[in-house]
Specification:
By secondary structure, the chain is mostly beta strands. It contains two helices and 42 strands.
């Protein structure tokens, strides 16, 4: 019996050391597994078998100690070491590393699992414009999706769904703008230089003959009295543009409009209109023409901005009007358009069923009259574009598309008053015709601001009236152009942010972080997943990097998230190789015990014979 017992003890040593080697080899096999936590093996002795019990002092004999022999070794515990692993730079914006405690949450068939593996990727869904954030073999990462731009963290999480790269963001027209700068403290009659118009941009939809647009341009005007020049300055010229057409081409593919531009009562009210373009019979002027391409042989549906020509070519001709002043002097005003004056019609359309109806408006005029100070501000405005869209039968038709683009908006500032209380300026915006007045005190501080019209709300509270050089710039505005999403990033609190070509960013979702009260009570699974067990307690959900609970949930001790980084395995190679040598020696010694016990047993059997 004794010899067979030593065989059993030796066998227990072999078996337990083999199990310890299995654990060690698994650690080494996962030395490069992202987020892997090594297992630590502990040996435990099997209870001793008593040979004799202890005896108390009696009859002059001293007390004796109990005598027993152990019955070998077995597996004590195999626990997970949750020590933080090292960092591994990847350059991937979706790769995440949690500093401190906490796990990412992954949805599985068995419920929510915890993992330190932050190697995320986007997986397609049934919606072609949507992607699911996943880890491992398609396991959805849990968190909170934004609703109406707001994320509400809670103890209830959901699969994170994100827009696909290339997602379209609809632009927003500017409705409010805050300006900052300086208006100079110059005299009331200061002669600010003007700028002549060389580009007039139109927008809208042409339908039918005789559509008319009244607008303003700025051109050099020379005034003379009885033939002697007295003033040469940039003045505002009211003009009228009349569109004639359309004329459908013989092949039914092109609609052509012609247009003429004439002045309206310039430069002195009451004068008859003077034709500017085209001037009949003047060979230096040419007819303006614009053409649009139709979608079918008889259809008048056409594409946007497909102009053939739209440039004024005024040559050297001058246009003049005469008035007589109170003293009988003949005052002649003469102007000519610059040779590079262009009517930009790239935003014009010609659709019978346009969603914006019929009408042409001024989109932009890049000039200003003498006597004003001009500042050009890039705001955002919308118009309807039309793009070819093929239906299921392959028939292409033009569909309306709302587009928001940068529009240069010119604000004209004019000095209107100056007294002992301060200075007053008037202002006028070419975008929508908004206008108002600015009143400054003697210290150059704005004391009152008015506005008429509400196309865009202008805030001048940061503008001053000083001796410094005139400046004016946008401090804030709420508009932006259309854009597409080009990349996704994740911040330190786990917010998932989309970056768009219009320089806008949108928070689409946020990662949830979880932990449990007793980490050693977690139950391991494949793929570096852990599930809450009976001894671990339930999952506590929090937010990365929130040590105070100020972001909406109680803090759970999770550090901030780093991106472009993964957590490497926490297996220590040097320690594992040292343990391997010890396990090998233990196994070798136990095998020697088995061999020797076997030889002793054989000897005993031979003695019996």
């Amino acid at each position: 019996m004794g010899l067979s017992q030593s065989l059993y003890i030796g066998y227990s040593g072999l078996h337990t050391h083999q199990r310890s080697m299995d654990n060690l080899s698994n650690n080494l096999a996962n030395v490069n597994t992202v987020g892997y936590k090594k297992s630590e093996f502990m040996f435990s002795s099997i209870f001793k078998k008593a040979i004799s019990g202890g005896n108390p002092e009696a009859d002059g004999r001293s007390a004796t100690n109990p005598i027993g022999v152990g019955l070998g070794t077995t597996t004590g515990t195999i626990s997970t070491n949750f020590k933080q692993g090292g960092t591994e730079q990847t350059g991937n914006p979706l790769d995440c590393y949690i500093g401190g405690n906490g796990f990412f949450l992954a949805g599985t068939r068995n419920g929510t699992a915890l993992t330190r593996n932050g190697s995320f990727y986007l997986d397609p869904t049934n919606n072609p414009n949507e992607r699911m954030l996943c880890v491992g073999e398609g396991l959805p990462i849990q968190g909170w999706n934004a609703r109406d731009g707001v994320i509400t963290p809670s103890q209830t999480t959901e699969d994170i769904l994100l827009p696909a790269i290339g997602d379209k963001m609809e632009g927003q027209s500017t409705s409010e703008v805050k300006l900052t700068g300086v208006l100079p403290t110059v005299s009331k009659d200061a002669d600010f230089a003007g700028k002549q118009t060389d580009t007039l941009t139109l927008s809208g939809n042409l339908q039918g003959d005789g559509q008319t647009l009244r607008t303003q341009i700025y051109a050099p005007v020379t005034q003379s009295s009885n033939g002697s020049a007295i003033k040469d300055e940039i003045q505002k010229i009211d003009v009228e543009i009349v569109f004639s057409g359309p004329t459908l081409s013989a092949d039914g593919t092109t609609n052509t409009y012609t247009w003429t531009m004439t002045t309206v009562d310039w430069p002195n009210p009451g004068n008859p209109g003077v034709q500017v373009y085209p001037a009949e019979g003047d060979p230096n002027f040419s007819q303006g023409e614009m053409a649009f391409h139709a979608t079918g042989s008889t259809s008048l549906k056409v594409g946007a901005g497909q102009s053939v020509s739209g440039k004024v070519e005024p040559g050297q001709s001058r246009v003049s009007t005469d008035t007589v002043d109170e003293e009988g002097n003949t005052i002649r005003s003469t102007f000519r358009l610059p040779s590079d004056f262009t009517v930009d019609i790239s935003r014009l359309t010609n659709l019978n069923d346009s969603p914006t109806g019929s009408g042409v408006e001024t989109w932009h005029v890049n000039g200003n009259p003498t006597g004003t100070m001009v500042r050009t501000l890039s705001l955002f405005d919308e118009y309807t574009d039309f793009q070819l869209v093929a239906d299921e039968n392959g028939l292409e038709t033009y569909q309306p598309v709302r587009v928001v683009e940068t529009r240069e908006n010119t604000i004209l500032f004019s000095r209107t008053d100056s007294d002992e209380t301060g200075h007053t300026w008037s202002w006028e915006s070419t975008m929508g015709g908004d206008s108002g007045e600015l009143k400054f005190n003697t210290r150059g501080e704005l004391v009152n601001s008015t506005q008429e019209g509400n196309t865009v709300q202008y805030n001048f509270e940061d503008v001053m009236n000083t001796n410094y050089e005139a400046t004016m710039m946008i401090k804030e505005q709420d508009g932006y152009r259309d854009g597409t999403m080009t990349e996704i990033s994740i911040d330190a609190n786990g917010k998932i942010i989309g970056h768009y070509t219009n320089q806008r960013t949108v928070t689409h979702a946020q990662l949830a972080i979880g932990t449990v009260a007793n980490l050693n009570g977690l139950e391991g699974s494949s793929g570096t997943l852990f599930y809450p067990g009976i001894a671990s307690g339930g999952i506590q959900i929090g937010i990365a990097g929130d040590s105070s609970g100020s972001l909406g949930l109680d803090p759970i001790g999770a550090g901030a998230i780093q991106t472009h980084v993964l957590e490497s395995s926490n297996v220590d190679l040097a320690m594992e190789f040292s343990n391997m040598i010890q396990i090998e020696r233990g196994y070798q010694f136990n095998s020697k015990v088995v061999m020797t016990s076997d030889e002793m047993l054989q000897t005993a059997l031979q003695t019996k014979r």
